[in-house]
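Practice problem 4.
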């Protein structure tokens, strides 16, 4: 089970039918908002408070969220992270998991109050679908895996129930009252057409708010998150648990945007210099700190060359155990020279036989599915040309020969109905955030 698979599980709401449209951080706090509460700058606490000594249990309108619930949900995140976390990090993680479980409970209770209960059969069907489609496993195998990491099928099914219940609430109480006019869609299409060919970026963001008093602690916390992400932690999982932006529900994904939509010169400057797959942060901005991850970038309404389909021949040599480095280098040099003499793909098999190499034909390979280092090289090749050799003595040295390329069609203009749907989803998400805040404000919550 990979971290990527777990990440997909943690954000499987889209597969369950709940579409949460990206919003570019409009709900972020500003530095001066604390003053609106009329708080004194010099606080005197009436009793000692140890933030690291907290019991992660609560009673939400009579429903008990147990320590076991927190343990099992946190286990999913720890499995996604796949790297050890400190005790301090674990405390923060568990407290965030508790907050998420409270929200989940409020969503389920609100649905039940309106007689929108989620049938157990639908939960089981979704669980099985997640197991087979996202994990390539039968439900029984996923049961076993979840228990092996300290979680449980019941914990995941509870999360599924929460997602489905929330989706029902949004469909009844919010979606019917969201309207997008034809004029708004037409105006957006005109703006897109005017920006055809300019770059747009798909960014992930983790936002942490800070005041002058908490700035140092928040920055230290953000730096620890960046460290965990660089060690292989799941950006989606961390965004869902720690980000305070409205996009936390969708793993921090801002969607496809132009940098001006960030409405922050610092973030615009940083993002403009990033490459796909790059992580940068923490970045100090008004109101707190941001961590940015560039998922991808493209040109507006233009065909992406990385969507081209390639036909490739992979020519590879391997080395017997115990081969000395000197002999291996000699063979690589002979292989490199021999590849240069291959007269196109039709000559690949016979040339490989002379070189003691194997040939594997790979048809219908999309450029973007290959490692980024190879993408740029292959896009520059003509049919019959090969990449430079790559690999290692342990795994073998190989080249890829280009035997065919089908370029993507020029992108069509914006689709009216698709854009209207995206605008509606964005407004539903904004109202959903307000709806959840109202549920929190009206809830009776006891912490044990």
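Answer key:
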């Amino acid at each position: 089970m990979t971290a990527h698979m777990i990440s997909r599980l943690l954000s499987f709401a889209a597969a369950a039918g709940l579409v949460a449209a990206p919003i570019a951080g409009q709900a972020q706090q500003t530095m001066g908002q604390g003053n609106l509460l009329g708080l004194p700058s010099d606080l005197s606490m009436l009793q000692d408070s140890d933030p690291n000594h907290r019991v992660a249990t609560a009673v939400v309108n009579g429903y008990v969220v147990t320590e076991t619930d927190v343990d099992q949900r946190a286990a999913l995140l720890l499995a996604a992270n796949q790297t050890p976390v400190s005790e301090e990090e674990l405390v923060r993680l568990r407290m965030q998991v508790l907050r998420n479980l409270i929200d989940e409970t409020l969503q389920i209770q609100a649905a039940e109050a309106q007689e929108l209960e989620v049938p157990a059969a639908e939960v089981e069907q979704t669980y099985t679908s997640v197991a087979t489609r996202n994990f390539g496993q039968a439900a029984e195998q996923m049961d076993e895996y979840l228990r092996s990491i300290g979680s449980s099928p019941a914990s995941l099914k509870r999360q599924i129930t929460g997602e489905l219940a929330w989706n029902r609430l949004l469909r009844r109480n919010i979606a019917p009252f969201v309207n997008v006019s034809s004029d708004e869609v037409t105006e957006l299409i005109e703006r897109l057409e005017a920006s055809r060919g300019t770059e747009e970026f798909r960014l992930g963001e983790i936002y942490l708010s800070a005041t002058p008093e908490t700035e140092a602690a928040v920055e230290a916390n953000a730096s620890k998150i960046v460290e965990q992400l660089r060690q292989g932690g799941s950006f989606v999982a961390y965004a869902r648990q720690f980000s305070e932006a409205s996009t936390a529900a969708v793993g921090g994904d801002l969607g496809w945007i132009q940098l001006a939509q960030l409405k922050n010169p610092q973030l615009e400057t940083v993002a403009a210099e990033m490459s796909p797959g790059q992580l940068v942060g923490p970045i100090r901005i008004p109101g707190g700190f941001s961590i940015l991850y560039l998922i991808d970038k493209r040109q507006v309404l233009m065909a992406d060359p990385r969507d081209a389909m390639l036909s490739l021949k992979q020519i590879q040599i391997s080395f017997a155990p115990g081969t000395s480095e000197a002999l291996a280098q000699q063979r690589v040099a002979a292989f490199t020279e021999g590849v240069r003499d291959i007269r196109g793909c039709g000559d690949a098999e016979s040339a490989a036989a002379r070189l003691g190499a194997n040939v594997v034909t790979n048809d219908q390979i999309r450029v973007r599915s290959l490692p980024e280092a190879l993408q740029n090289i292959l896009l520059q090749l003509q049919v019959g040309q090969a990449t430079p050799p790559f690999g290692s003595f342990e795994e073998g040295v190989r080249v890829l020969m280009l035997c065919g390329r089908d370029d993507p069609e020029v992108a069509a203009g914006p689709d009216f109905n698709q854009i209207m749907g995206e605008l509606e989803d964005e407004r539903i998400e904004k109202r959903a955030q307000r709806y959840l805040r109202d549920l929190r404000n009206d809830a009776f919550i006891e912490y044990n």
